Amino acid sequence: MTERFHFEVPSNTPHMRVDSFCTQMIPEMNRSKFKAGLQSLCINGKKAKCSARIQQGDRIDAVWNNPIPTALVPEPIP
């Protein structure tokens, strides 16, 4: 399932990596899971890497697709 995330960095946020910021904003997400499913990442409308540093007022847009299936389906055993 593809999800789109939109964030604006508040003024009280310290300079940090964009992947760290996004995982703080999404409680059930960790950095490795975020990176594994990341389809695209833009800061202020420009493509960015997960390691990019953010500043207050930045607009972050991310498209994420969960690479891990939500349900496991057993295969038939002959």
State the main characteristics:
78 residues; alpha+beta; 19% helix
Protein model, in words:
- It contains 2 helices and 4 strands; from the N terminus they run E-H-H-E-E-E.
- Strands 1-4-2-3 form a 4-stranded antiparallel sheet.
- The mean pLDDT is 90.
- A hairpin with a 2-residue loop joins strand 2 and strand 3.
- By secondary structure, the chain is α+β, with helices and mostly antiparallel strands.
- The protein is elongated and about 60 Å long.
Overall geometric form: elongated
Structural class, by secondary structure, is: alpha+beta
- What gyration radius follows from the Cα positions, in whole Å? 15 Å
- Count of alpha and pi helical runs: 2
- Describe the largest sheet: 4 strands, antiparallel
How many β strands by DSSP?
A: 4
Distance between the termini: 32 Å
**Portion of residues in helices?**
10-25%
Please state how the strands of the largest beta sheet are arranged side by side. 1-4-2-3
Listing every helix as H and every strand as E from the N terminus to the C terminus, the arrangement reads: EHHEEE
Low-confidence residue ranges: none
Q: Strand fraction band?
A: 25-35%
Instruction: Report mean pLDDT, rounded to a whole number.
Output: 90
List the helices and strands and how they pair.
Blueprint: E1 2-8, H1 18-25, H2 31-37, E2 38-43, E3 46-47, E4 59-65
Antiparallel strand pairs: 1-4, 2-3, 2-4
Write a compact overview of the structure shown.
This protein is α+β, with helices and mostly antiparallel strands and 78 residues long.
